[in-house]
Amino acid sequence: MLRRTLKSFRYGVLPVPGRLLAIIFFVFLFTLPLITDQRFYIIMFTFASIFAIFAVSWDLLSGYTGQLNFGHALFFGVAAYSSAFLYKYLGWQPWATIPLSVLIAVVTGVLTCFPALRLRGPYLSLLTMAFPLMLAGVVISLRKYTGGENGIASLPALADSEVQRYYICLIAMTVSVLIMWKLTDAGSRYIRTGLIFHAIREDEIAARASGINTIRYKLLAFAIGGLFAGLAGALFTHVIQSVGPSSLSLTMSFQAIIWVIFGGIVSIYGAVVGVFVLYPLMDLSTRLGDIIRGLSIPSTPFFVPLIKIEHFVLFLTDRPIIILAVVVIVILLFMPEGIAVWIRDKIERECPRCKLTNGFWRKECRACSASLH
Amino acid sequence: MAAIIITYAVVNGGIYALLAIGFSLIFGVARVINMAHTGFFMLAAFGLYYFTKKIGWGDIEAIAVTIVVVTLLGILAYRFIIDRVREHHAAVLLITIALVMIMESILLWRFGGENRGVGSLIGGYVEIAGVRVLNQQLLTVGIAALAIIMVLLLLTKTKLGIAMRATAQDAEIASLMGISASRILLVAMGLSVALAVVAGILLAPLEGVRPGMWGAPLVTVMVIVTLGGLGSIKGSIIGAFIIALVEQMASFLIPEGGYLTGTIILLAMVIVLIVRPAGLFGTMFEEEKL
Q: What does each C-alpha distance from A6 to A9, A58, A284, B167, B180 come to in angstroms?
């Protein structure tokens, strides 16, 4: 058993830089509480894990099947509010509210799909954008039950300590991403969904002509998207211990889209990379500002240009939105496919003969020794 | 009551129509969903505020400079940023959101978050059917109507407008007919932004300016354009007045309606889309049909 694992590591992971990086990344995440005990980083990566589930579920629904959903916050918010209601009115604890609210999110996903089945392209996007906004309006106007704009606070926490919460969210993220990765794997011999999702995106009529019941698979995509977005929403509620209409806002929907497109659409790992780059970037820039404020630069004439630079950096770190927006624009102008896909193309090379992935350092394919140039 | 609702619906409908025509135009010609559209509208409102209140220019100079500067900004943003990623639909969406986020945070830094008033361009009011209508509101309706008529004339009667519509229908055939597609796209973007600028200048004296003012109109404009049919100018105009009327009826007739106006106009859009998947006046191309 151990020997087989080592063998697959040696021949399946080491020669492929992308897989190696992914394993290093997950090892880093799982050992993070050993590396640092600062609450700031633990909490930051807890939220990043939750949002990674959310972003990947958007990628599965919108990237793979091409049903560009502008209202993914609907599933997130429905699950967040239902777990809050289940606690507030029925007194249920997190381990019971989370599964049920995920189920409610799945039902919401299937219900959303019915009007969406008739529409395509921009019309579909704008229709789906409408649902969470409509629900947010209803939630705000029923302030007696939902708390209006302030939402519902003082919900039970997912676990007692931050590290426990971190591990719960991290394990949930790892398992969800693995499941979604397997479901969308187009090369899989056992699961056909990946191939069918690609077919629906590329040409729905051709897919239908090949005997695929596209309606059933679209429903499936909406249900899976709802399931994992709902999981993220329910976890999020119990981590921040409150829920508000911002979980249904346009910003929440667009955040998922920003992360996925930044990382690379139609690639599960792209969505994860997008979240784990952009979310900490926003948090860390505020922190960087605090560190720079802590430095005291002497105000002699020699240091005047340095102080000017300090002021400019502080100006930016106080407004992380500007940093985010500029990074997004620059990345998209120079790598419109997304940063993760761009990096993968730099460090990996596909063999022209046997389609095997090789590291960038190889001149010949590692299996069939065909030239890689 | 009915008179008040209709008055407000006509005023808001005029502004919405200006915004929606521009949004629809650039979508039709360049297939770009420009999320920064209401960002330019916000820049224009702030431009008017800045030039009249901070620098102290007269209204006419301020309006002229605002129109020129913001339209140029829009054309530059299109030429150097949006045009480069035009092939990737998702990237366009994201880059225009990033643009409007930058606009908002710069305005927040420069002017702060509170609502600021801009003086009326003309004072006084007249009474029509028992409703006090500000002269400013009449001016808004008049200018909006004038701008809409001019755009319609431009699109139907001039060579430029015909070239624009040809590019919208089929960019490849249009360029075979000797139309420079890249130039037409720039002109369309300029026209689209200019309409948003006019809308911003008209709205600023009525409702004041604040850095978050792009959000709500963006949703409304998307609803209008979807309702009328993406890329259809006629649909945008009719949709704008329908939505303005629904919005006013919701906020006057339903208790707590102020919170529900968004929900109700979105509901109207959802119903129209379920009944007619291409909007009221939208055309669906054969290859896009399902």
A: 5, 34, 37, 60, 61
| Mutation site for A-interface testing, chosen from B76, B87, B94 by largest number of A Cβ within 10 Å | B94
User: Using a CB-CB distance cutoff of 8 angstroms, which residues of chain B are in contact with residue A265?
Assistant: 90
Pairing of strands A357-359, B125-128: unpaired
Tokens at residue B258, please?
């102020």
Q: Which CATH number fits domain A18-269: 3.40.50, 3.30.1490, 2.20.25, 1.10.3470?
A: 1.10.3470
Reference A236, options A69, A97, A128, A33; nearest CA is A97
pLDDT in tens, A189-233: 888 899 999 999 888 889 999 999 999 999 999 999 999 999 999
Q: What is the ipTM of this complex?
A: 0.79
Between A and B, how many residue pairs show a Cβ–Cβ distance under 8 A?
124
The pTM for the full model equals 0.86
User: CA-CA distance, B185 to B79, in Å (whole number)?
Assistant: 9
If contacts are CB pairs under 8 Å, which of residues 118-177 in chain A contact chain B?
Answer: 118-123, 126-127, 129-131, 133-138, 140-141
Q: For residue range A5-33, what is the model confidence (pLDDT) as tens digits? A: 888 888 877 888 888 899 999 999 999 99
Each residue's pLDDT tens digit, B59-117: 888 999 999 999 999 999 999 988 888 877 777 878 898 899 889 888 988 888 788 88
Interchain contact, B266 vs A261, CB within 8 Å: no
Domains of chain A by residue range: 18-269
